[in-house]
Amino acid sequence: MHRAAAVRAILGKLGEKMQILKQQPEKLKSREEQIRERLAQIPESQRRAYIKAVGRKSMAAACKSFCYECVGYVREEVKVCSDLACPLWMYRPGRSVSGKAKIERFSAVESTNDAGSDE
Length: 119
Hints:
The protein has helices at 2-23, 31-41, 44-54, 59-70, 75-79, 99-117. It is mainly alpha-helical. The protein has two domains: 1-29; 42-117, no CATH class. The longest helix is centred in the N-terminal third of the chain and has 22 residues, at 2-23. The mean pLDDT is 79.
């Protein structure tokens, strides 16, 4: 019975949230509206990849679009991305060295920076 009460409580909360959403339909935008708004903010040079990505035509275009959006559409920043924990880091566009070599290079830079901060 304890489990049934928990399920009823969760369903009750979901019902409340659904009622709130039904009362605020102007805040909910369709996928197409959100895509149009984002497309208007994307630089002309990146729009083609974004359109391919949201059209489910290319996973590579989706990765490219995500990376460029993440770094503010600056090509050089994508190439030197330092977010090694990002699941797309190994697949980002413009990577110039293998992932292992890049990680070793970042480790060397970090150890140099750490040594300089003690002074």
